[in-house]
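pasting for the record
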Amino acid sequence: MVNNHQTPNKVMKKIIVFALIALLATPSFAQYEYSRQRSRYNHNDTERYYGLRLGLNIASLSSDVADMDMDSRAGLAFGAVYGFQLANSAPVWLEVGAFYSEKGGESKYNNVKTRLTYFEVPLVCKYSFDVADDFYIQPFLGGYLAAGFAGKTKNYTERESQSSYNIVNRLDGGLRIGCGLEYQMVYAEAGFDFGLANISKDDFQSVRNRSFFLNVGVNF
């Protein structure tokens, strides 16, 4: 009997790898004395930072057609970001990134699993609230553009497999919203990607990406 959804073992393996890397990286970076006060106003020079991110996507596909309306699946994401202060008089930041990101979904309706792997470029604007010494809350709003470069769609009932991009377009884009927490060099965030682009190749149906994400990392 073929399992029609991602097995708990596979999901747990991804979560465990994600957690172990985060736990191993955090103590060493936390010992670094972090002297920049990025949420405070800087009237002399524009502040900037570089960051590394590792994360988990809980992605799904939203469609008006039952065959393509898919429940969530777990996928990995990792990449790097660059941010800079937009104005010396306010703690407002613009951040751009480059990510490897796994999305897609799985359908219990027809026993189909779709994996979509993207090169993703998010662009967000952040406002940094200084809560305590070296601790900041950073809500953000922006968008993302993505280009698909790998992915398989597997029909377990019919035992068939094909490239996902025979069904959907490679280009995607949408709205990104969320909130980050920063303490010294350590950073964590949670957010949601709302796909605005209709990625369906069929003119008579719509398919859009949806993804809740969790990222952890460090800023330099």
